[in-house]
Automatic annotation (TrEMBL), chain A:
InterPro entries linked to this entry: Bact_solute-bd_prot1, SBP
Complex and partners: The complex is composed of two ATP-binding proteins (UgpC), two transmembrane proteins (UgpA and UgpE) and a solute-binding protein (UgpB).
Taxonomic classification: Bacteria, Pseudomonadati, Pseudomonadota, Betaproteobacteria, Burkholderiales
Name of the protein this chain belongs to: sn-glycerol-3-phosphate-binding periplasmic protein UgpB
The keyword Magnesium belongs to this UniProt entry's keyword annotation: no
UniProt cross-references to Gene3D superfamilies, sorted A to Z: Periplasmic binding protein-like II
Family recorded in the similarity comment: Belongs to the bacterial solute-binding protein 1 family.
Location relative to the cell: Periplasm
TrEMBL record, chain B:
Annotated organism of origin: Orrella daihaiensis
Protein name according to UniProt: Sugar ABC transporter permease
Family per record: Belongs to the binding-protein-dependent transport system permease family.
SUPFAM superfamilies: MetI-like
Sequence ranges assigned to domain ABC transmembrane type-1 in this UniProt record: 68-280
Subcellular location: Cell membrane
Membrane topology recorded in Swiss-Prot or TrEMBL: Multi-pass membrane protein
Superkingdom per UniProt: Bacteria
DNA-binding keyword on record: no
Length: 426, 291
């Protein structure tokens, strides 16, 4: 009998707990990790803090792998009618998410003047990929651009001014030639410049193509310009860096090992995401600088990184909770701290006015280079059926970089493939 | 139907396994055949019957053919090499030598490590200039190679990692089989003065045949199932030089969300694996001597 009583009381207690939990709205939130550093810990901390301030909500962050794995999980869950309330996904997946009818625009939630102001406060360049048909589908969160890191020690060794990075393509070549170091038998000990081309070569290529004055896709995501003469020229320049000037490693360069190559002194200049800043700052054994990418006919870099999306099939209450979390997450103070912790660009000008980021930038000027580059930044390549169109370009770029095709042939083939895919959306 | 209680009990005991088999094997396979004949559903557009169109697309798809050829080369290299190395290692650690347990453990180690982590380490082995392998090359005065970034070397480079991983796994089966062989054979061979090679070729190898068949089928299946290293190390690149069938299937299914075409690709993979299974069942099994 005693046993029965205790059983009943445990049952009753657990029932109470579950009703208490029911009063809370659970907001599941998928996020990827794409750069070094304790990102999971930081996000879990944010969720805990938010939940404390908002007792009626319970944000449950779910680490979902890389960007690619996260979008697979989120879309699969959507197709099974059980999506998360929100997720951080690549801003370039916006078209795909709309085509799959997976997300709702933020305009549905923005009601007050304060909220309208919040939407306007982001850097315009970061809103480009998320705004389609005059609606805002994604809110910038972990955003980046490509920047140039240079090894000041190597510059000194090569007789260059360690405080000036190459400003244009010509200087990139001439400095690169001085920086490339070979041993007696002709083996390269240090490359002048290195731009990775594995995984997502299109992103770094957009640096070259933008600088040459080309825009790869229209804003409706239905038309690409891969065979534009300016695009072919830009690719020719990238290929020339290794084949003609011999200052860039031949073949396809790994994205993953590029920061290590830089820190090992194997490459004097690298292009990579500003998201690697904190990692390189902690681990580079020499003084280094961070600069905007060099210019040719203009300066330029694509933006990159992830936006915050709200899922359509999530219950209304969860969507509202996700919206509140998005606002909370992008407040200037928090965006500033996020930028300091990871190296990502803070998403609004207001974040750069905070004391925290001001004093951080005074102490470490490279932290604001990516922000200064934003006025020159363009939308990251994004179209309908984005991953397939992007693969066509990636394959073409790699074919040219490995010498399998001429830049002209490679881009013509990529254009033909993209046209075939996009025909259905025109 | 007249089922007695004993039979009923047997059916009930089989039921859970049967439910799983249907749910996770038979139903998906049938659904895939069906899906491969339909167009891919998009928001607002329900799938429609398209007949063999997805297969037509496949025949005209150069990336598909590239992945198939890559996969055949991959199988051709991994299967004999990993099995050969496995036998060699098993024979070696089967002998009474110093540090035997340590050797056995070292050979088996690749199998228990998480492959994604290992593939990340291998990326650094392959790094131009200062990667482990290139450092070794340079020691012998050879030029540093960009293993993963050169289309001529990328597939071979991921193949080596697969062999490294598989050989240790297969060794365990051979080792187990060797240990079941009665020591009297070896004693008899020693009395007769048979050489080590003769003993292996005439006695051990035939007796190991059932294991070899088992390992061969596993190796074949693994060769067409291989995907994880590709993700981490090359992403199928450069320009599809290291794309394998399952990797391409994943891309079509979960990057392009093209369900119809992905189902058609799955059918090809299923057909290959079915042929492998039947081959074992009808051909090899009959020629094998089981004790």
């Amino acid at each position: 009998m005693k046993k029965l009583v205790s059983l009943a009381s445990t049952l009753a207690a657990s029932l109470c707990v579950s009703t208490a939990a029911l009063a809370q709205t659970e907001v599941s939130f998928y996020f990827p990790v794409a750069v070094g550093g304790p990102v999971t810990k930081i996000i879990d901390g944010y969720a805990a803090e938010f939940n404390k301030e908002n007792p009626d909500l319970k944000v449950v962050p779910v680490y979902a792998g890389s960007y690619q794995e996260t979008v697979v999980k989120a879309l699969t869950a959507h197709k099974a009618n059980k999506p998360p309330a929100a997720a951080i996904l690549l801003s370039t997946d916006t078209f795909t998410l709309i085509d799959e009818d997976a997300i709702v625009p933020f305009d549905n939630f923005v009601k007050t003047d304060e909220e309208r102001k919040w939407m306007k406060d982001f850097f315009p360049a970061f809103l480009l990929n998320g705004q389609i048909d005059n609606k805002t589908w994604g809110i910038p969160f972990q955003r980046s651009t490509v920047v140039m890191y240079w090894n000041k020690q190597a510059f000194k060794e090569a007789g260059l001014d360690p405080n000036t990075a190459p400003q244009n393509w010509e200087q990139l070549v001439s400095m690169g030639q001085k920086l490339t170091k070979r041993d007696a038998s002709g083996n390269v000990e240090r490359w002048g410049i290195q731009v990775p081309s594995s995984g997502f070569p299109y992103w770094l290529f957009q640096g070259f193509s933008t600088q040459n004055g080309a825009i790869l896709a229209n804003s409706e995501g239905t038309q690409v310009a891969f065979d534009d003469l300016k695009v072919i020229e830009a690719l020719q320049f990238w290929v020339d860096l290794s084949q003609k000037y011999k200052i860039h490693p031949p073949g396809v360069v790994q994205w993953g090992t590029t920061p290590a190559d830089f820190m090992q002194g194997k490459s004097a200049i690298i292009w990579t995401t500003t998201g690697n800043l904190t990692n390189i700052r902690k681990n580079a054994p020499f003084e280094f600088g961070v600069a905007m990418l060099p210019e040719n006919v203009r300066r330029g870099s694509p933006t990159g990184g992830g936006n915050f999306f709200i899922f359509k099939k999530a219950p209304e209450a969860e969507q509202q909770g996700a919206f509140r979390f998005a606002k909370w997450l992008t407040q200037p103070e928090r965006a500033a701290q996020w930028s300091i912790d990871t190296g990502y660009v803070a998403v609004s000008p207001a974040a750069y006015e905070t004391q925290a980021l001001k004093s951080y930038a005074a102490d470490f000027p490279p932290a604001v280079v990516a922000r200064d580059q934003l006025p020159f930044a363009v939308a990251e390549l994004s179209t309908h059926d984005n991953q397939r169109v992007t693969k066509a370009l990636n394959d073409g770029l790699q074919a040219a970089l490995t010498g399998a095709k001429t830049p002209q042939q490679a881009m013509k083939d990529a254009q033909a493939e993209a046209n075939r895919i996009l025909r259905a959306y025109r | 139907m007249n089922i007695n209680s004993k039979q009923l009990q047997a059916y009930l005991l089989l039921l859970p396994a049967f439910v799983f088999l249907v749910g996770f094997t038979h139903y998906p396979a049938l659904a895939t055949i069906f899906d491969s004949l339909m167009s891919t559903p998009r928001a607002g557009r329900a799938p429609v019957f398209v007949g063999l169109e997805n297969y037509q697309v496949m025949i005209e798809d150069p990336v598909f053919w590239k992945s198939v050829t890559n996969n055949l080369w991959f199988a051709l290299a991994t299967i004999p090499l990993s099995m050969g190395i496995a036998i060699f290692m098993a024979l070696w650690v089967n002998d009474k030598i110093a540090g035997r347990s340590f050797l056995r453990m070292s050979y088996f180690l690749p199998t228990v490590l998480p492959m994604i982590a290992v593939a990340n380490i291998w990326i650094f082995f392959y790094t131009p200039d200062y990667g482990l392998i290139n450092q070794a090359l340079q020691l012998f005065g050879l030029k540093s190679q960009n293993f993963l970034g050169n289309p001529d070397l990328a597939l071979a480079s991921v193949t080596v990692v697969a062999i490294w991983k598989e050989a240790g796994f297969f060794m365990i089966f051979y080792l187990a089989a060797l240990q079941t062989l009665s020591p009297s054979y070896r004693e008899a061979a020693q009395i007769e003065g048979a050489s080590k090679w003769y003993f292996f070729w005439k006695i051990q190898w035939p007796l190991l045949m059932p294991t070899t068949i088992f390992v061969l089928v596993n190796a074949l299946i693994n060769a067409f199932r291989m995907v994880d290293h590709i993700f981490v190390m090359t992403n199928g690149g450069p320009n599809n030089a290291s794309s394998l069938l399952l990797f391409y299937l994943y891309e079509v299914g979960f990057k392009f969300w093209d369900r119809g075409y992905a189902s058609a690709l799955t059918m090809v993979l299923l057909a290959i694996l079915a042929i492998v299974g039947l081959l074992q069942f009808f051909l090899l099994d009959k020629r094998t001597h089981y004790r």
